[in-house]
Every structure is written in structure tokens, then in C-alpha cells.
Write a structure and sequence with these properties.
about 375 residues; Jelly Rolls; nine-stranded antiparallel β-sheet; mainly beta
Length: about 375
């Protein structure tokens, strides 16, 4: 670092795969303050010298960041190659006349020949050089593998997003860049990526529950995120962020009445209540259950001011077989058993509250 013009001791890496390439996408004004343009970042022989941004020679200095004007996005399509390119390094050069815009801040993505329009994150850079004197300085960031391996396989395109991870917000929202080089070799075969995303779709003309099975060993089951921004419940009736880890696809629209409970003990002082709902035969209350709904609205103002206190709800059961008919017998002795299948509509009644009159025998 030193007074401008300042020329660094390094030179641009030779053999760049994007040398002379015009970006397929170049969003923003890369000549903010300097009059430069995005094409200069890959121009062969472009000087890496740092000039005062007001100097006519500063057209080698592109301004990138997230200030609303500067260049914000670059996409380069690599030269045509059957299997794309295996990349070994990406080097980005920059600097500024003082400490005000000398950072490097961006996220690099790449796509492969297998899916050129799908960009995957490669890495993020957030580098602020030490420049206590506030003089002109030049920067260089090399992205490579410490062991000399490839950093991306079968690459077809590269994307540089200067709005993340920091968007230059710590340095006036934009910084100076002079060149970008990319080294690598043409790939000779397709290499499976280390991470594979598999997508599928189900659809219907009306509300439905998909047939996918939700894994039960999720490490974040039932958790609420420690950090979250924005609204996850902008539509009326949706659950919000908690639905993402609750282990279900959402509540169905049809519920089958099971029973009703009305229990209002006569007590004085503080009391605790417990209601257990079971069958007298030991058979399941219900089979093939996916969701349970508790409706507390039948309690009106004539019972305990219209609301009561509840401390815990426990539901017990086991993984059951395929749907089977529910067998049982009448609470009153009858000569005939009964069987019921399907669903029932109408008000919910307590099975244990119903009695059948004993018929009179005829002679």
C-alpha cells in the first residue's frame, strides 16, 4: 500500500478461462465513480494499478457492491466444452485509493453442464485488508484447494453476487475491483457432485395430503428457529414457521367426531381434574389416525364463565395395521353384536353416555 497510483507486486494469473469474455449478465453500474465497465474485469493485459477514482486512468477500476448503483451481479458462460471445466482457482483483484472501498465482498456460484441454469454456491468472500494509514492499496483473493485439488467439476458458468454476504456495507456499500481470472482444465467425463438434490411433485385439483413419508428422525423436529426474519404467516389461516418442523404436511379438512366431554365437578377452593377417554373393551378408540382435533368452543358462558384451564393433553397409541372394522357391543346387554365402518356425521356423542332400552319380551 502507498500513495496512488499504486502498482501491486503481483500480476494477473495467466491462462484464464474467462480472458476476454463479456459477461452474459452484468447488473448495475460498474463505472460508478470511475467510468469503467464490466468488460474490463476480463480484458487481457488490464493493469492492476490503483489510481485515484477521479483519474482518467481509473477506468480499469470497476465498482461493485450493494449501494443501489454499483455493479451487483456478474455471470460468465465458460467456453463450450462437452463435459465443462474442472476449476482449480478463481482469483479476484481489487483495491482503492484509500481505506474507504478496498474490501472484497461477494459470493461465487457455479453451474454444471448437466444443468447450466442451476447455480450452486461455491464460496463466499468477506475480506477487509488492514490499512491503518488509509493510503492506496491493492487486494488479491485466491480461491483454491489447499491440497491442489479441484474446487468445482464440470463447470459451465460462474456467477459473482456482490450483494452478499455483506454487500460492502462496512465499506460504503461498494468496493473497487480490477480483474477476475479463472483457471482450470476441460473435463473428460461427468463427475457426480458431492451433494445431490432430488425433486418430485404431486398435485391435485383440490386440497390433498401428499403420499410422501415424513422422516421421523429429524434433528430439528419441533424446533423453532433461533434466527428468522420476515413473516411466515402472511396468508390467513396458515400455521407459520412452526409448521416447517412439526412432522406433518398440514391438517386435513375432514375430521370424524370421536366423543364429547362435559365434566363440571362441584368443588371448593383449588382443584385439579383428569379425564381419560378409553374404550371399555380395550380396543382402539380410532384406527389409522393422522390428526386429532380438540374443539373447546361448545363451552359457553353458562359453564365456568365460558373457559377453563388445561395443563396437559396426552395421546397414546401404536402403529396400526391397515383399516379394520371396529367391533364392540352395546353398553346394555343385547343378543346381537354390531359392527361399524366408515365415517359418521352429526353431533359428537359420548359412547359411554348412551344406553339402549331393554326390549320387552313378547309371549
Amino acid at each position: 500500500m502507498g500513495a496512488v497510483p499504486f502498482t501491486p507486486i503481483w500480476t494477473a494469473a495467466p491462462g484464464s478461462l474467462i480472458s476476454g469474455l463479456v459477461p452474459m449478465v452484468a447488473n448495475g453500474n460498474f463505472g460508478e465513480y470511475t467510468g469503467a465497465n464490466a468488460n474490463n474485469l476480463t480484458k487481457p493485459g488490464i493493469p492492476l494499478t490503483i489510481y485515484a477514482y477521479s483519474s482518467p486512468q481509473a477506468t480499469n477500476l470497476e465498482v461493485c457492491g450493494n449501494d443501489g448503483t454499483a455493479g451487483s451481479l456478474l455471470v460468465y458462460t465458460l467456453p463450450i466444452s462437452t463435459y465443462g471445466y474442472n476449476l482449480t482457482s478463481i482469483t479476484v483483484y481489487g483495491g482503492w485509493q484509500d481505506a474507504g472501498r478496498d474490501a472484497q465482498d461477494y459470493t461465487v456460484y457455479y453451474s454444471t453442464v448437466a444443468n447450466p441454469s442451476n447455480f450452486m454456491i461455491l464460496t463466499s468472500v468477506n475480506y477487509i485488508p488492514l490499512n491503518p494509514s488509509g493510503t492506496g492499496d491493492a487486494t488479491r483473493v485466491v480461491i483454491n484447494d489447499a491440497a491442489g485439488g479441484m474446487i468445482a467439476n464440470n463447470a459451465a458458468a460462474l456467477k459473482f453476487d456482490f450483494t452478499t454476504p455483506d454487500g460492502g456495507s462496512r465499506e460504503n456499500h461498494a468496493a473497487g475491483y480490477t480483474a477476475i481470472t479463472v483457471t482450470g482444465v476441460a473435463a473428460t467425463n461427468l463427475i457426480a457432485p458431492p451433494i445431490i438434490s432430488t425433486a418430485s411433485n404431486q398435485n391435485s385439483g383440490s386440497s390433498f395430503t401428499p403420499t410422501w413419508k415424513i422422516e421421523t428422525n429429524s434433528l430439528i423436529a419441533g424446533q423453532i428457529p433461533s434466527v428468522g426474519s420476515g413473516s411466515f404467516a402472511t396468508e390467513a389461516g396458515v400455521t407459520g414457521v412452526s409448521a416447517l418442523t412439526d412432522g406433518t404436511f398440514g391438517a386435513p379438512s375432514t375430521f370424524i367426531p370421536l366423543t364429547s366431554v362435559y365434566y363440571n365437578p362441584v368443588v371448593t377452593g383449588v382443584s385439579a381434574n383428569r379425564v381419560a377417554i378409553t374404550t371399555s373393551t380395550g380396543k382402539p378408540l380410532a384406527t389409522n389416525v393422522a390428526f386429532i382435533k380438540f374443539d373447546f368452543t361448545p363451552q359457553d358462558g353458562n359453564t365456568d364463565h365460558g373457559y377453563s384451564g388445561y395443563a396437559e393433553i396426552i395421546v397414546q397409541g401404536t402403529n396400526g395395521p391397515a383399516l379394520q372394522p371396529i367391533w364392540g357391543s352395546s353398553p346394555a346387554a343385547e343378543p346381537y353384536p354390531y359392527v361399524s365402518t366408515g365415517s359418521f356425521s352429526g353431533p359428537a356423542w359420548s359412547l359411554t353416555a348412551l344406553t339402549w332400552p331393554i326390549p320387552t319380551r313378547c309371549k
